[in-house]
Amino acid sequence: MPRNRVVREVMMPNFKKIDSMFKVSEALKMLKREKINAVLIEPRDEMDVYGIMTLKDIARKVIAERRKLHEAHVYEIMSKPVFSVQADMPLPYAARLMTNFNISYAMVVDNNEIIGLVSLNGIVTTWDME
Asked: What is the distance between the alpha carbons of residues 17 and 76, in angstroms, rounded to a whole number?
């Protein structure tokens, strides 16, 4: 039986946050440079919430529609609001929750602070069946 692992153990702590007015081309350069597949989009004000942009969003909402990367803004293609999970949530529950809502990424929260991102890919590839 696998040991009880939690989201904190498989999350990506090196996540980045950017402003929604970034051009998609600028965001893509940053994603490549940092070797990450998703970026959080900062809320505009205290009444707003976080968004997320992934490589899949770029492919589906820019490239597939033959839009220009340097003309599209992140706010046009991001998903919002971002789903969040607690850092101490057991991995099977996080995987079930994310698949039930058909999401690939979630913010990881601990004491009301965002401490990372978790992906379904990360959960699957780090799952240990010892």
From this structure: 16
The pLDDT of 45-72, averaged and rounded, is 95
- pTM value is 0.87
Residues 114/89, Cβ–Cβ less than 8 Å? no
Residue 1 falls within a domain, yes or no?
no
Pick from 123, 117, 73, 121: nearest CA to 94: 123
Residue 121: how many other CB atoms lie within 10 Å: 12
For 68, phi then psi, to 5°, come to: -90, 130
Find the domain containing 15 and state its range: 7-126
What is the sign of the dihedral through the CA atoms of 60, 117, 10 and 97? negative
CA separation for the pair 83, 117 (Å, rounded): 10
The two tokens of residue 16 are 């980045």
Whether 22 is in a domain gets the answer yes
Asked if 57 contacts 69 with a C-beta cutoff of 8 angstroms, the reply is no
